[in-house]
Design a protein that fits this description.
Number of strands: 23
Helix content: 10-25%
Strand order of the largest sheet: 1-2-3-4-5-6-7-8
Number of domains: 3
Shape: elongated
Strand content: 35-45%
Distance between the termini: 100 Å
Largest sheet: 8 strands, antiparallel, barrel
Radius of gyration: 32 Å
Number of helices: 9
Structural class: alpha+beta
Length: 434
């Protein structure tokens, strides 16, 4: 009974002091900097194990950041400046190492702080070692899915099978493929796509932009041959919360993880390759320009397996054609239809267009009045029409155009219809436009 009583007292004593034992000892007061543009840092402990850090710079500027421990096991703290760059602190009394991270969490500078100038002088060796710090230029992720993710941040990596991110089978990672083989791609990010810093790679509909093409060599970022249009990948709300994106660049069938139109153009590019090996590049597109910020390359051997590629392209093309129907007419006016057809035929012939237009559908329910921006005077009236055409190679398309009649005064308009503007074009089954 006596032993039990003593053990109980010890247990109560330990429990009573648990908060004290778990509390981390943060730096406090003024620390002197061993970094070119920082003079000193003032640390102020805050409630809840937070730490206020105010950085003073040589140019007179100062920046504050509220830091908190990354976890309970380490002394590492991290915070964010107003410009959304990060600072990471690694206290090791009497010194404190700190890292400056970009908005994409890449280490661009490292410094050392000392609790006194005397300590600072004694730490010259540690200061010299900062120039070769292994974390310089690296990405420091808060929640990497794996060590493989951390290593390949802002890279696009290719797999022979659909990978499970976080549990990647490294035997499936490949840098070279044969034409017709399945190619899966994973783009690894430093932050979730929803954080806002990847907005330049997203469309207004929150789709991820990418471009693919043939590279002359691994040093140049410009494609020798590339897809004419920037393509997009569909993303769900859950996808936007992730710090990676997975999609099938060349699936075995269908268009897994990619829009049908995008998969069609990718296979079209590959189906046109010469029967030799090619260096292929794929990168995310920032606004409307390609860059190597998030990029990946692989070698494609097109000397064999092209039958599979062409068969897949044919399947996707047939599936894509089935999606499109000629728009329904919103205005029934045979005489106007004839005028519009003649107008687009004249315009196409004058421009040397290859396609031959033979059918139009007016898609506007009525004429729209055009007025002068400054005076408000009536300039004419406009309608929209879908114009169907056949090309020399046998495929068919329809394209939207705007047509106008000029105003002649007194509420009267010219009988001549002319093309005013050109809209999007779609491929369609020729049987649907007869």
């Amino acid at each position: 009974m006596k032993v039990f009583y003593i053990q109980l007292l010890i247990a109560l004593f330990v429990i009573g002091y648990l908060p004290e034992l778990s509390a981390q000892s943060h730096p406090e007061g003024t620390y002197y900097s061993m970094m070119g543009n920082v003079t000193n840092v003032v640390f102020t402990p805050k409630k809840g194990n937070y730490l206020q850090a105010e950085f003073f710079f040589f140019d007179g500027d100062r920046e504050k950041a509220l830091l908190k421990p990354l976890d309970k096991k380490t002394k590492i703290l991290e915070g964010k400046f107003d410009d959304n760059t990060f600072v990471r602190l690694m206290p090791d009394k009497p010194l404190v190492k700190f890292y400056f991270l970009s908005e994409y969490r890449r280490v661009y500078n490292v410094g050392l702080l000392a609790s006194s100038k005397k300590t600072m002088r004694r730490a010259r060796k540690q200061f010299k070692a900062l120039k070769t710090d292994p974390l310089l230029g690296k990405y420091l992720l808060l929640h990497p899915t794996s060590a493989f993710h951390q290593k390949n941040t802002h890279k696009i990596v290719f797999f022979s099978e659909k990978p499970v991110v976080g549990k990647e089978d490294l035997t499936k990672v490949k840098t070279s493929f044969k034409a017709g083989e399945s190619i899966w791609a994973v783009a690894y990010f430093s932050r979730p796509l929803s954080d806002g810093w990847y907005q330049w790679y997203l469309t207004r509909r929150k789709e991820l932009r990418f471009g693919i093409g043939i590279l002359e060599d691994n040093k140049k970022s410009d494609f020798v041959t590339s897809i004419d249009l920037i393509r997009t990948l569909p993303l769900t709300t859950i996808d936007l919360q992730k710090n990676y994106a997975v999609f099938a660049l060349v699936p075995k069938k269908g268009h897994q993880g990619m829009y049908l139109s995008s998969a069609l153009l990718v296979t079209e590019l590959m189906a046109q390759l010469e029967p030799t090996d090619h260096l292929m590049g794929i990168g995310l597109v920032e606004k409307h320009s390609y860059s190597r910020k998030i990029f990946g390359t692989f070698t494609l051997d097109a000397s064999q397996g092209m039958k599979k590629v062409k068969a897949l392209h044919k399947t996707l093309k047939k599936k894509n054609l089935a999606r499109y129907q000629l728009p329904k007419a919103q205005m029934n006016n045979p005489a106007l239809n004839k005028q519009v057809l003649q107008a687009i035929q004249r315009f196409g012939q004058a421009g040397g267009w290859k396609e031959t237009f033979h059918k139009v559908v007016i898609t506007s329910p009525d004429w729209q009045t055009i007025t002068h921006e400054s005076t408000g005077n009536i300039m004419g009236r406009m309608i929209e029409a879908a114009c169907a055409a056949k090309w020399p190679d046998g495929h068919c398309t329809y394209q939207y155009f705007y047509f106008v009649q000029d105003h002649q005064g007194g509420g009267k308009y010219s009988q001549t219809v002319r093309r005013h503007a050109t809209g999007r074009q779609y491929t369609i089954d020729c049987q649907k436009i007869k």
